Amino acid sequence: MLNQMERRALEMLLAGDNDELAVFRAQLSATTVASREFTGVGFFTRLSVPAELPRVKGRAHMVISDLCAEVSGLEHEASFLLFMEDGAIDVLECAIVDDHWPVDATLRRPYYVRPAAPGSSSIVETRERDLQWALRNAV
């Protein structure tokens, strides 16, 4: 079962007016947790999508990584990445720069990010989600 942090992160990563995201949201409603691994500097949650649910066609690999959050017990923000494989949601990753993952971590304030300027590698918090940038890592 998804915990509160995983569910909120997935809901935000899959939000938006986009046909592919709608398919991924439908998958999320029936998705279960296949495994959860805490690395000390974040976690990986591997997801299991029932085979009978529709898949996004024409997308072998996709990553959405425009979500960060303040998390209790962390000095710095956490970053969330969602990996999709063969048209299905696959792995949620949370990465941190602090030296350890807090025991009782809770999601305090999630927010979207985007480049500080076109072509910049620096990212900044944004009030409006830049869905085009968020969906840029699709193959």
Question: Tags for this entry?
Answer:
alpha+beta; eight-stranded antiparallel sheet; 3 helices; 17% helix; 41% strand
Could you walk me through the main structural features you see in this protein, from its secondary elements to its overall organization?
The protein is an alpha+beta fold. The protein has one domain. It is built from three helices and eight strands. It has helices at 4-13, 19-28, 131-134, and strands at 32-38, 42-48, 61-71, 78-85, 88-96, 107-115, 123-126, 137-138. Strands 1, 2, 3, 4, 5, 6, 7 and 8 form an eight-stranded antiparallel β-sheet that branches. A hairpin with a 2-residue loop joins strand 4 (78-85) and strand 5 (88-96). The longest helix has 10 residues, at 4-13. The two termini are 29 Å apart. The relative contact order is 0.22. The mean pLDDT is 94.
Shape: globular
Query: What is the count of distinct domains?
Result: 1
Determine the structural class based on helices, strands and strand pairing: alpha+beta
Percent of residues in beta strands?
A: 35-45%
Helix content: 10-25%
Extended strand count: 8
Low-confidence stretches: none
Specify the biggest β-sheet: 8 strands, antiparallel
* First-last Cα distance: 29 Å
Average pLDDT figure: 94
- Quaternary structure classification: single chain
Summarize the helix and strand pattern as letters.
Answer: HHEEEEEEEHE
- Specify Rg, calculated over alpha carbons: 15 Å
Query: If helices are DSSP runs of H or I spanning 4 or more residues, what is the number of helices?
Result: 3
A few lines on this structure:
With 139 residues, the protein is an alpha+beta fold. The chain is 17% helix and 41% strand.
